[in-house]
């Protein structure tokens, strides 16, 4: 869809041309100068009169009215040149892309160089452009008889630049991959529990493996029983749907070493089990596989961009239901690792399924672990709805995840994790661990429980209970699933180990 063209954008015929404008340029240069020249100083006049604003994130539409081959000039205010960040650019692009529906256009174009600064390279601008276009125009079609698909589809997006066209094309591809992987995760999270069971998730993973040539292993219930995966099996006991342990392997190095394990909570619906959620708390729990979706979205990006890394993705998939066979508070179960767990709360099921998944990831050679999970309501109380909570047993690994999160524009905040926390998850009188040591600091407790299974393997835990969905639409997408951590995970994998060398 994206085409790079090394030519003067204003000599062409276009339906809609996106142009970046900084506040108070001393004089126009580059593509803006070409524009001003072509229209006899009119740009200078329009900026002076205030008809075109350069204020950050403002959008000014100027019609060519037949005087130009370009039908609409859409100026995107970027504020002061030195203040523009990659993040801000992404949001500015996102905001304008969301408005495009109103224009009823089939083609788009941009004068890319007008977005470039000392800090934001042409490649950065290209990456931000394709990524935000794809994120901002995402919709979940849903199931209405009259669907809410957009009436107009953009067929081509021409990117005019004086920079190296191969490099800019490659950056557009990277941005597209990041956007598409995120959108795939959004769709998985938005899909209701009856339409995305563990079986459906396994089917989805199989298709992904086919498309990107991943090795795949899907453990069925009988195999899990044989292996002794008592924690995920306990969570699944009340369900009519079979559980699956889904494993995807991507080998980007000659040898299977330095393996990164990505583990995502795949609870397709969380009723709470016998520790039943109140009726208002159950609504929305189709999103409880947001961690799995983040891992699958990141694997899609990895499959497209094929970094020189080794990755094993492990997804424990089941729902958490009630029935005569369901597990109960007070039950003691034996996890795959051998550690026994006293179940004090069947609603603390995420840490149980993750326990077995983490152990399995290690068996598959994972030497570094990142788990992602909609794990606790506690993280929302602690950090609000816009920050992902983190816990780690390894500073260096956490630094790498944090760096990736900055680049992705996804906020992470680390919670403390001390020996006292470890003592609390080990405080059961009759088992090695207990799955719910009380509400105090319970986002930390959830992570600390998972840490018992990571053991000495460097590990970062990401609790996305607050960030996996949003209540209202934003510059880079609609309300509902955000696809949070897809890009952080993908960037983390792409850049892994580069910091130390
Ligand atoms: N899936 C929930 C966490 C959650 C809550 C996600 C709200 C999104 C929004 C998780 O399984 C859960 O129920 N956690 C409990 C743990 C508690 C029982 C220790 C919680 O946070 O209340
Ligand atoms: Mn729960
Ligand atoms: Zn849950």
UniProtKB/TrEMBL annotation:
What InterPro entries does the record tag this protein with? Leucine_aapep/pepB, Macro_dom-like, Peptidase_M17_C, Peptidase_M17_leu_NH2_pept, Peptidase_M17_N
Annotated positions binding Mn(2+) 2: 265, 270, 288, 349
GO MF terms here are: manganese ion binding; metalloaminopeptidase activity
What's the Enzyme Commission number for this chain? 3.4.11.1, 3.4.11.10
Q: Which Gene3D superfamilies match?
A: Leucine Aminopeptidase, subunit E, domain 1, Zn peptidases
- Cellular localization per UniProt: Cytoplasm
Which UniProt keywords are present, listed alphabetically?
Aminopeptidase, Cytoplasm, Hydrolase, Manganese, Metal-binding, Protease
Is Transcription included in the keywords of this UniProt record?
A: no
Cofactor annotation comment:
Binds 2 manganese ions per subunit.
- At the top level, the lineage of the source is Bacteria
Q: Which residues act catalytically here? A: 277, 351
Q: Which family does it belong to?
A: Belongs to the peptidase M17 family.
Name of the molecule in the record = Probable cytosol aminopeptidase
